């Protein structure tokens, strides 16, 4: 995994994208004014971080963002697209993984994983689907971390695959934030 030391701009983008992911929770087929995510309304007038801290489904992600020092970045202007893993997604990792990653000595690794969930710009589900169509069935998008993600669309579902071949499904798309968009996913992507 690549360290973001010496690349503060990349770190800021990654953090913002991650924070957006934390607060994501809107179905792709509908754009509710203030969608509920993790039992809390997500306000388009608030930043990714301001919304994410209220989602009960993203407490692990919020803790990870804090441990990686990405709160300020994800509170910045962006825009960012964040693929936000839920607590259940983090729970699928081997036992002890999250506890190990949030330790200070693993900050660079954690930052790399979190920024791998963030893409510069605001890409809605419609934008992602259009990129997939243009790509003949799949599209590569570059993350703030530097490695690509592969996006596919099948029916009304959007899938995101990491460089290791792990695939996550977008379960809630288009959670709009003042500094980007969050898409809630059911897996943790790894560079």
UniProtKB/TrEMBL annotation:
<dbReference type="GO" id="GO:0005615">
    <property type="term" value="C:extracellular space"/>
</dbReference>
<feature type="signal peptide">
    <location>
        <begin position="1"/>
        <end position="32"/>
    </location>
</feature>
<feature type="domain" description="FAS1">
    <location>
        <begin position="45"/>
        <end position="189"/>
    </location>
</feature>
<dbReference type="InterPro" id="IPR036378">
    <property type="entry name" value="FAS1_dom_sf"/>
</dbReference>
<dbReference type="InterPro" id="IPR000782">
    <property type="entry name" value="FAS1_domain"/>
</dbReference>
<dbReference type="Pfam" id="PF02469">
    <property type="entry name" value="Fasciclin"/>
</dbReference>
<protein>
    <submittedName>
        <fullName>Fasciclin domain-containing protein</fullName>
    </submittedName>
</protein>
<keyword id="KW-0732">Signal</keyword>
<dbReference type="InterPro" id="IPR050904">
    <property type="entry name" value="Adhesion/Biosynth-related"/>
</dbReference>
